[in-house]
Amino acid sequence: MFVRLGAPKSGDWLASFREKPETLNQFKEKIKAFARKSNEQRNTIRIQPLESLDDAKSKLAETLMSFTEAFFQSNVEQNSPIEFNKIMASSVPRRDDNSQFDCDGLLSDEIIPPPGPRDLLVAGILFSKDLYHGKLNFVFGVGSSSKRKGVYSFVRFGSEQEARTNPSLYLKRCLRLMAHELGHIFHLQHCIYYRCLMNGSNSLEESDRRPLHLCPLCEDKLEAALKVYNPGFYLKKYHADLLQFFAKAGLQEEVEWTQKRLHGSDMTAL
Ligand SMILES: [Zn+2]
Ligand SMILES: [Zn+2]
Question: Which of 74, 108, 115, 165 sits in a 20 to 30 Å window from 41, CA-based?
Answer without folding.
Answer: 108
